[in-house]
Amino acid sequence: MSNTRYKYIHDKIQNGHAVYMPYVLIGYPDLDASIAAAKTLIDNGADGLEIGIPFRDPVADGPVIEAAANHALDNGFKVDQIITFIREIRSYAPTTPLTLMSYYNIILAKKPDIFLTALANVGLDGILIPDLPPEHAEDIYPLTQKAGLEMVFIVAPTSDASRFAKITPYAGGFIYVVTKMGITGMQDQYDQNLAALFKTIKAHFALPAIAGFGISTAQNAQDMVKNGADGVIIGSKIIKLCEDSYKEGKLSPALLSAHTQEIINAL
Amino acid sequence: MASHEQINDDRGFFGRYGGQYSPEALIPILEELRQAFRKYEHDDTFNKEFQYIMHHWGGRPTPLYYAENLSAQYGAHIYLKREDLMHGGAHKTNNALGQALLAKKMGKTRIIAETGAGQHGVATAMACAKMNLPCTVYMGAVDVARQAPNVERMKILGAEVIAVESGSATLKDAINEALRDWIASCETTHYLLGTAAGPHPFPTLVRYFHKPIGIEARAQCLDMMSKLPDMAIACVGGGSNAIGLFQSFIDDKDVQLIGAEPGGEGLESNKHGAVLVKGTHAVLHGMSSLALQDEDGQIFETHSISAGLDYPLVGPEHAYLRDIGRAQYYAITDAEAVEAFYDLSAAEGILPALESAHALAQAKKSAAEHKGSHILVNLSGRGDKDLQHIMAYKKEHSE
Questions:
Q1: Could you tell me which residues are beta bridge partners of residue B352?
Q2: Per-residue pLDDT tens for A23-82?
Q3: Which residues of chain A lie closer than 8 angstroms to B295, CB-CB?
Q4: B143 and B116 in contact (C-beta within 8 Å)?
Q5: Residue of B nearest to A134 (CA)
Q6: What does the pLDDT look like over A154-170, one tens digit per residue?
Q7: Do B20 and A178 lie within an 8 Å CB cutoff?
Q8: Residue A252 pLDDT exceeds 90
Q9: How far is B136 from chain A (nearest CA, A)?
Q10: How far is Cα A216 from Cα B48, in angstroms, rounded to an integer?
Q11: Percent of chain A scoring above 70 in pLDDT
Q12: Contacts of residue A236 in chain B, CB cutoff 8 Å?
């Protein structure tokens, strides 16, 4: 933790502030617009970014992100464009922690050692692979360490102490806490034992516990922090805002700016 | 038996294939299922109940039939394992009933399933009616439109059919949607997966319920041929009927195991589903396996005249059997499958499913290369469901 960009969110949390790490899908609505969206989020105070890659079979994502991913792919998105995206955002925001969420098959297809090194070289900080549970983390953990990338893991309401123990040896950056059983999306029903879940997670891991899945409003974000979250990730709502802000090939920043400020003020 | 089984260390690997590449939220429920399966597979009461139902309700054992006329025509001795005579008209009933029974033992009160052409959905709806379990079947909206009779069957049998509109609105989208349901409902719900694929323990569990195919066929071969067959041939989409057949012959090194994959319009056309012939290493749908994919790891849509073989991945054990050379897999084109469909219908008065017609077409090729050999073919399903597709194909290719 000490030498990575995640130290920034760690320190902020230590000082009593919650963090906001919105999700951006690369290539949606197009590559330039997604870069513009990321910059807008950063300009308005996002503490970090979670970056998604369009994938045809996103089993851990909901219909909004799936539809956006298909749109990006139909428009010709190629995985190599991620290098351009991260290089650009990194030079724009030298200290902001950037976490890539990628399905495992994309990494496999791009040859893990080459792909992970290339991502680290342009300034990526960590990688979250939703379909790579800790049982299989050894498949690529050594390569992430060699490249200098943290592996970020998901904890769900069903994860018990035995799951935590499996995750611990590999976990870096932060813990992505799934706050409801289901998939990413904008439903606002949370697991009832949320406070207990965050308490257990924070007792076990020395990493920030960031809430994701099913969060879209400032009220949702506040509820999460009240229940013990160190910060929130919002995804599907950002996709919707990008869609609404995209006119004639240009992304206008007003909606995303207002949203980011609203969430940050609520935290 | 041991040599092959031992490689599976119960993390669900067959060599490099298999495993449990699933989101964290699913891992505990997969573990619950693994433990239940490991308990009940050795439970005499469970197995007797399964066998009783499969006999009296399902019609097992199915016969082995020496296809004399077809043998004369093909130039080799063709024996058909008549899974088409099972209740429901295909082998899929084995797995559907087996898993429904297991779910009941686990205290689950609801079943969900995915279906492509609707065969697995119908089998699941049948099994759930019999086991008195409510059942929801996810089916791509495109398939719902294409397979109206099967949708009606499922509804009559008491299932709720949900048309999935996302993505390409076909089988893989139905799987994605069923998984989403399961993550949210796993405490009460069992996901009755339709083929020997997906995360561990599914490939092993589905194989278990289809094992009777191979066990019966092996004994019937010894009885009727006084020896083992030279070849055992089955069609492979996800690979469940093939793995059920192959299982009992794995250690019989002299029995060549052959899988027939959907070659669609030909391997050069890119309109096919020959994953074991043309696929590359991939991780999707909870498993390490092979898939038809592009250089970015995006999975292709496949093509086959047979909807039941239209799947861009394959069960992990087949990938393993291919790699170690224990089984060979070949592509059969739409045209070859249709020809075999007509061959069997005319020669024996049996309409095979288009899926099974792929295995027959492979038998025809193998017979031509090995005149007089003894060939066991798994006739995995009946063909009445395919008449519409055959007619459409004929019409399209008559001009």
A1: B382
A2: 999 999 999 999 999 999 999 999 999 999 999 999 888 889 999 999 999 999 999 999
A3: 109
A4: yes
A5: B24
A6: 999 889 999 999 999 99
A7: no
A8: yes
A9: 17
A10: 52
A11: 94
A12: none
Low-confidence residues of chain B: pLDDT under 70: 1-9, 399
Q: Is the ipTM of this complex over 0.90?
A: yes
Helical segments of B158-201, H only: 171-185
Task: Check A105 against B293: CB less than 8 A apart.
Answer: yes
Q: Which of residues 198-227 of A touch B (CB under 8 A)?
A: none
Give the integer Cα–Cα distance in Å for A42 and A35: 11
Nearest to B95 by CA among B151, B137, B50: B50
In angstroms, rounded to a whole number, what is the distance separating the alpha carbons of residues B143 and B175?
A: 13
Cα A209 from chain centroid? 12
* Cα of A216 to nearest chain B Cα, Å: 19
pLDDT for residue B4: 43
A133 touches B: beta carbon within 8 Å: yes
Residues of chain B neighbouring A156 (CB-CB closer than 8 A): 23-25
Residue-level length of chain B: 399
Of A56, A79, A156, the CB nearest to B25: A156
Test B176 with A106 for CB contact under 8 angstroms: no
Q: Closest partner residue to A105 among B24, B172, B297, by Cβ?
A: B297
Q: What is the DSSP letter of B302?
A: P
* Closest CA of chain B from A131, distance in Å: 5
Cis omega (within 30 of 0) on the bond before B61? yes
Residue with tokens 């719900």: B189
pLDDT tens by residue, A169-181: 999 999 999 987 6
For residues B113 and B121, the answer to whether their CB atoms sit within 8 Å is yes
Instruction: Report pLDDT for A153.
Output: 98
Nearest CA to CA, how far is B117 from chain A (Å)? 20
Answer whether residue A206 shows pLDDT above 80: yes
What's the pLDDT score for residue A182?
Answer: 57
Q: A106, A130 in Cβ contact below 8 A?
A: no
Note the pLDDT of residue B308. Answer: 86
The count of CB pairs under 8 A between chains A and B is: 111
Per residue in B76-100, pLDDT (tens digit) is 999 999 999 999 999 999 999 999 9
How is residue B136 written in tokens? 């929801």
pLDDT of residue A114: 97
Contact B137, B125 (CB under 8 A): yes
Among B216, B212, B218, B234, residue whose Cα is nearest residue B97? B212
pLDDT at position B145, please? 87
Catalytic residues of A: 50, 61
Distance from CA of A242 to the nearest CA of B (A): 20
Please answer yes or no on whether B297 and A110 come within 8 Å at the CB atom. Answer: yes
Cα separation, B196 vs A215, in Å, equals 36
Residue A56 belongs to a domain with what CATH number? Answer: 3.20.20.70
| Record: contact B298-A73, CB cut-off 8 A | yes
Name chain B contacts of A153, Cβ cutoff 8 Å.
Answer: 24
Is B201 or A214 the better-scoring residue by pLDDT?
Answer: B201
**Which residues in chain A touch residue B25, judged by CB atoms under 8 angstroms apart?**
154, 156-158, 178, 181
Q: Give residue A170's domain range.
A: 4-266
C-alpha–C-alpha distance, residues B170 and A213, integer Å? 26
Tell me the chain A residues in contact with residue B19 when contact means C-beta distances shorter than 8 Å: 135-136
Counted domains in chain A: 1
**pLDDT of amino acid A188:** 47
Residue type, B103: A
